[in-house]
Design brief:
Layout (H helix, E strand, L loop, with lengths): L1 E2 L4 H12 L4 E5 L2 H13 L4 E5 L5 H15 L4 E4 L15 H26 L6 E8 L10 H21 L4 E8 L5 H10 L3 H5 L10 H12 L10 E4 L7
Parallel strand pairs: 1-2, 2-3, 4-5, 5-6, 6-7
Helix pairs in contact: 1-8, 3-4, 4-5
Bound molecules: nicotinamide-adenine-dinucleotide.
Nicotinamide-adenine-dinucleotide binds next to helix 1, helix 4, strand 5 and helix 6.
Length: 244
């Protein structure tokens, strides 16, 4: 189950997970885009189901889990990646509605997903693996707006707690600390803030944007049995941003 699968990192993850042999449930709000991606996957011989929905709505998230079970029998892995963020507005100028929406999508969205996915994984002998998308903003004040920085810190808290509570049940939960990545979200955020790509990568060792597939590969690895001894992890995929 991949949320935010209609573009960017989520869409790259869908292709990557399928290459690794997974059948995927694609969830996001834009049905048209999801259908195009599912069509592409099926043409290439993979299996994909589409669930149009909003991660802030528990019922939509539960529907995605139900579709995974109905179509594929089990929910083995989940990539809770849907998110929303922006740059360039200081804390005291940020509207309440922006705070509410950013917290709702980035925190409640992951919360909703974890609750529904873990409930299902607890009923499976095989457990499962979950990856949540945090950000360098989950560790630092990167220049993203304060609610986004706070929300991505919260994602790490949810990740560690879920990993600790369900490790005994064979459920691994990890978070990606994602650095600046070439996606619609980043392009929109840079434009809104009047900033250049170079500004957001200047601090990182590699001083470049990631391609979404570079993040997707890390998610695929964490969701796979190859990462069997990795849980509660805060895993940087950030070109070295968090190392210096
Ligand atoms: N691009 C970056 O530089 C960057 C850096 C760090 C972290 N991230 C994180 O990566 C994740 C993916 O973002 P992206 O860069 O691929 O951006 P994107 O805008 O291309 O993709 C975001 C996806 O989330 C979906 N989405 C947003 N709100 C949703 C909601 N309420 N319900 C369901 N789906 C929703 C969008 O439809 C889209 O599919 C986000 O969590 C983001 O915070 C991105």
């Amino acid at each position: 189950m991949i949320t935010g699968a209609s573009s960017g990192i989520g869409a790259a993850a869908a292709r990557c997970f399928v290459e690794e042999g997974a059948s995927v449930v694609l969830m996001a709000r834009r049905e048209e885009r999801l259908r195009l991606l599912a069509g592409e996957i099926e043409e290439a011989g993979g299996r994909a189901a589409v669930v149009t929905g909003d991660v802030t709505d528990q019922a939509d998230v539960e529907r995605a889990v139900e579709v995974a079970l109905a179509e594929f029998g089990t929910l083995d892995a989940a990539f809770n990646n849907a998110g929303q963020g922006t740059l360039g507005c200081r804390l005291h100028e940020t509207e309440q509605a922006v705070f509410d929406r950013i917290m709702d999508v980035n925190v409640r969205g992951v919360w909703n997903c974890l609750r529904a996915q873990i409930r299902t994984m607890l009923t499976q002998d095989t457990g499962g693996a979950i990856v949540n998308t945090s950000s360098t903003a989950g560790l630092f004040a990167t220049g993203a707006i304060a609610p986004y920085v706070a929300a991505k810190h919260a994602v790490l808290g949810l990740t560690k707690t879920a990993a600790a509570e369900y490790g005994d049940h064979g459920i691994r939960v990890n978070a990606l600390v994602v650095g600046a990545t070439r996606t619609d979200m980043l392009a929109t955020a840079l434009e809104a803030a009047g900033r250049r790509e170079l500004d957001v990568v200047a601090r990182a060792i590699q001083r470049r944007l990631a391609d979404p597939v570079e993040v997707a590969r890390a998610a695929a690895w964490l969701c796979s049995d190859q990462a069997s001894f990795v849980t509660g992890g805060v895993v940087p995929v950030d070109g070295g941003y968090s190392a210096v």
